[in-house]
Design brief:
With 243 residues, the protein is α/β, with parallel strands linked by helices. A six-stranded mixed β-sheet has the order 1-2-3-4-5-6. Helix 5 packs antiparallel against helix 6 and helix 6 packs across helix 7.
């Protein structure tokens, strides 16, 4: 596992652990035992105790803040109102749910999620390729054959370069990349996105925002070297609700 991914998983576990440690003194808490939790715990314990301490300290600051502004985290209706904590699988991101750690109260029909980031802000790392129909994947509408007729020859040329060099050709050895690769592909992308937008402005705008930001409201917690940053994405008005 890449170092950045391992650190991210460890931070997810630290946030869940801090939620549990602080909230089980105030309400009944249940942690969902699943494979993402096992992986995150393994990643956390793969670091030395000093690094673990930094993760927990940062998570503690974030969790204290979230408990203050989300009263339903610590307040239950009765003894049947259990707060469930869960680490979500990465596959949720493929359907637009970018949250990593989830707090759920089924009795109240309420939940909030946290997207845990270790030293980076990115929500999506989107790619273009001859096999990716970005219209279908991002927006639910297929790209046109005209779009693929523009980009596929460029990708085919790159593949041919690699084949002729027996896989030894490097990206850095290609001259004028901006002219022969980046510019024509991005122009084709821009034109196709504009075409899709013109056909259904409201739908495409909504779907693009949901793809880039997420289909659920959430808090993004970003661990910095000496600080923590918390951002709220409350497009649907489900955050900071009263008890």
């Amino acid at each position: 596992m890449a170092g950045q991914m391992k650190a991210g998983k460890a931070f997810e576990y630290a946030i869940l652990r801090e939620f549990k440690g602080k909230l089980e003194k105030l309400t009944t808490v249940k942690v969902i035992d699943n494979s993402p939790l096992i992986l995150a715990k393994e990643c956390f314990h793969g670091f030395d105790t000093q690094k673990q301490g930094r993760y927990l300290l940062t998570a503690s600051f974030a969790v204290n803040f979230l408990i203050d502004i989300e009263p339903r985290l610590s307040n239950d209706i009765d003894e049947t109102d259990i707060l469930e904590l869960e680490i979500l699988p990465d596959s949720q991101g493929e359907i637009g749910d970018v949250r990593d750690v989830l707090a759920i109260r089924a009795v109240q029909k309420w939940e909030i999620g946290v997207s845990a980031k270790n030293n980076h802000k990115a929500v999506k790392h989107s790619r273009l390729s001859p096999d990716i129909d970005f219209g279908k994947k991002w927006l639910g509408v297929n790209c046109s054959s005209n779009y693929f007729s523009k980009v596929n020859p460029i990708f085919a040329k790159l593949k041919d370069m690699q084949k002729k060099s027996d896989g030894m050709r490097t990206w850095g050895s290609i001259d004028a990349k901006s002219l022969i690769v980046y510019t024509p592909i991005l122009n084709a992308f821009k034109d196709e996105l504009q075409r899709l937008y013109d056909a259904d402005k409201e739908r495409i705008s909504r779907q693009l925002i949901e793809y880039l930001v997420g289909s659920k409201d959430f808090y993004k917690v970003i661990k910095r070297k000496n600080s923590v940053e918390i951002q709220a994405y409350n497009l649907r008005g489900t955050l900071n609700l009263p008890f």
